[in-house]
Design a protein that fits this description.
Blueprint: E1 2-7, H1 29-45, E2 51-54, H2 58-71, E3 76-77, H3 126-143, E4 148-153, H4 155-165, E5 183-188, E6 197-204
Parallel strand pairs: 1-4, 2-3, 2-4
Antiparallel strand pairs: 1-5, 5-6
Helix pairs in contact: 1-2, 3-4
Length: 212
Amino acid sequence: MHLYLIRHGQSFVNLKDWTDGNLDAGLTDLGKRQAAALAGWLPQQLLQIDGLYASTMQRARETVQPLCDAYGVEVQWDDRLREIGNNRSDHTPWPPEALPKAYSDYWASERPFATTTPMVEGGETFMHFRTRVGLFIEELVECCRDKTIVAVCHGGVVEAAFDHIFNIGPWRRCEIWNHNTGVSHFEYVEIPRRETWRLHFHNRVDHLAAVE
């Protein structure tokens, strides 16, 4: 299986002067141009895909739509691809009216077993988050071993995928940085006595050369 994880385009919540907390905001004008550039570039590198998945959050929805049009395929929406803190501890998404507005004052990886949204009951921890991302990946391993899958998600989801695939313990020691619309390519292989995953590249942004 070839798995391509892509962070969404720039959203209003990514702006340095954003003060409205955690909202399900869409893309900025730059983010829309990033998404369009991605959709123009990726099909030239990856001629055919077997599945296109996306987070149900607005910034991922707006990023994946140009890819959907470029490839002529339907998107499979998956709540497990939502950003950390936007789901409950049972992995179900918070409805828009109950979405926690603020995160904890500690970084999630600093206290991986503590809730990321202490102001609400039932918020997920870093380990809950990693579990739901891991469940998504393992489900793909079972159903799509000979396929090419693209998933539009969030920077935290890409980090959690690295933790799962590299078998990192609860306390991560290295932050994995992801640019908006950065592309990471993993391959699942089955060769006896070898590692089962290969990382081909991470955070590729060739398509943004003329955008920013």
